[in-house]
Design brief:
108 residues; 4 helices; 0% strand
Amino acid sequence: MNSILKITASMLLLFSLSSVMAVSEETETKLLEQALVEGAVTKEQKTAINRYFINIASQKQREATRYREMAEIGRGGKGVSQALKKQELLKRADSLEVEANSYKALSI
């Protein structure tokens, strides 16, 4: 009986630790960016981080523009599937623009 309790307790501990260690890529990126901003001390470091965020923002903006252009291109097929694909592409473009704006805000 005692060994069953030990095995159960160790299994619960392993499951709880694995869920704590599972961090999404987006969360990991945000934590790394926060560490960059907080760790910048010199003017050169701050300038480099500022340029980094501006570059990421412009990449996200270009990608959003590309998605908007792709949404306007007809691919053939049924109208319903075309409308769904267009809606999906526009939604992705909006999401990228939000990300670009957050990086622009970080760069200020």
